[in-house]
């Protein structure tokens, strides 16, 4: 299996969730979508789909 660099932007994920929830008839708050983005990021980490790296 090869390794690739993927950059995850939680703000982009939050915006995606916001738009998708609106399409489905929900009225999410900004805080709701940020929480969903954080949960998604944590899920990807837990499943070893991504690893978190810090810029130095």
TrEMBL record:
Pfam family name, one: YozD
Descriptive protein name: YozD family protein
Source organism of the structure: Siminovitchia fordii
